[in-house]
Amino acid sequence: MSTSTAPDPTSTPNPPPSSNPPITATTNQNNLTWSPSLTHPQRSLLRRQKGLTIWLTGLSASGKSTIASALETTLLFPPHSLSAYRLDGDNIRHGLNADLGFSPSDREENIRRIAHVAALFADACTLAITSFISPYRADRETARKLHAERGLEFVEVWVDVSVEEAERRDPKGLYKKARKGELKEFTGISAPYEEPESAEIRIRGGETSVEEAVKQIVRFLEGKGYLQKGEVQEGGLVEM
After folding, report:
1. Residue 38 and residue 98: Cα distance in Å, rounded?
2. I need a surface site. Which of 112, 193, 208, 226 has the fewest CB within 10 A?
3. Is 134 designated active site?
């Protein structure tokens, strides 16, 4: 590990092209400018933690939220003691995305918004854990690209269960309603789910316990060095 002098928090150097690029606005573009701040590597050194997004995708009732909640707890508590925050699909629709439905265009906007929110958490050196059905492959790739443009890591986790298994579980009774036609555009029944082609992690939900799923994700993160914490020494920060 090499020693690096702590950056001056009062300075606001222009970020490199791959760090914090301007977000494209849909209106008044000529009136907006990007306000520079610390770069993500600088923040990581100061916070002694790397930020990234762990994106759980899968059918309703696949177990995404349960796994995400257990993962968040595991990362927050010792021995990891890291900053982590769970962004849940249902929870987000109670507030930020309360104005969105489940049409293809609304689903796209739902994921666009949460991708930006997750990227903000990751840039702030927090482990952002998202659990969204995110049924469209193109939308998940857009989320990945958004992170890559900002120099942020993006780990896609596919919680893989069959429609039959998800329907058997059906804790909220949603599949039953969808079969009756009471829920329109329900993923897996009347709307498609496009399976990931290159997810970093694939959890076979029908045969993997929540505990084992969390261990599988943590092993991957540790193997990539994403959970490594930096150390502060007199005279400067030690790079992670």
Report:
1. 32
2. 112
3. yes
